[in-house]
Amino acid sequence: MKYLIVGLGNIGSEYTNTRHNIGFKILDAFAEASNIIFEHKRHGFVGEYKYKSRSFILLKPTTYMNLSGKAVNYWLQKAKIDVNHMLVLVDDLALPFGHLRMRTNGGDGGHNGLKHINQVLGHQNYSRLRFGISSSYQAGNQVNYVLSPFSAEEEKLLPERMDTVKKLIESFGTIGAERTMNIYNNSKPPDTLPASSSSKK
Q1: Does residue 81 form part of some domain?
Q2: pLDDT tens, position by position, 15-38
Q3: Distances from the Cα of 75 to the Cαs of 5, 35, 153, 168, in angstroms?
Q4: Which end of the chain has fewer CB atoms within 10 angstroms, the N or the C?
């Protein structure tokens, strides 16, 4: 049984550690923990992870965020994976840092990567995991915020969060989306960061 796990982000060293690239960052941590090597293939960097007779295709699109649907659609067809077996990892400004929320359908929530995937697939009926990056930015500074690195305090909490996402992905492939959501939705770091008093949308 095969699954497609898509971490959204932008290619290029200037984006490597930015909040908007948390999808890439999660899959990189996943690969490192499991000795997976990504190969540069059509429309993305691709790796494969075997777990309990399941095969997880890990995809980091090279199409840039705004054209993520191109890579997603290609690899769904190339690997012959049912869209119900796809999970997309994205950043979310509406959630506090490190909080996790998984859904099996829904709108793009203003996320350009999800927006393009919805357009290309012609529907929004696929699983996505939103990883909270918080809204701790000054009004009008949203773009700079999502394209900036995580704070030192956030970086300390990221390893635990990414390990939790790895377990969530394995759960998605073994016990299904609904049970996985019951276990992991609203999961948060053991030591959450205080909200910024200057945070404004």
Answers
A1: yes
A2: 999 999 999 999 999 999 999 999
A3: 10, 22, 36, 21
A4: C
Tens of pLDDT, residues 113-148: 999 999 999 999 999 999 999 988 777 788 899 999
3-state secondary structure 69-134: HHHHHHHHHHCCCCHHHEEEEEEECCCCCCCEEEECCCCCCCCHHHHHHHHHHCCCCCEEEEEECC
Asked whether residue 195 is domain-assigned, the answer is no
Selecting among 20, 43, 111, 116, the annotated active-site residue is: 20
- Predicted confidence at residue 188, as pLDDT, reads 87
Name the residue with tokens 């509406």. 94
Question: Is the pTM higher than 0.85?
Answer: yes
Q: Is residue 164 part of a domain?
A: yes
Structural domain range at position 168: 2-184
Q: Is residue 98 situated within a structural domain?
A: yes
pLDDT digits (tens, 9 = 90+) for 140-168: 788 899 999 999 999 999 999 999 999 99
CATH value at residue 94: 3.40.50.1470
For the chain, the domain total comes to: 1
Q: What is the pLDDT of residue 69?
A: 98
Pairwise CA distance, residues 183 & 80, whole Å: 28
DSSP category for residue 187: -
Q: Which is nearest to 98 in space by CA: 199, 15, 10, 19?
A: 19
51 by Cβ neighbours in 10 Å (0-12 / 13-18 / 19+) ranks as middle
Is 20 catalytic? The answer is yes
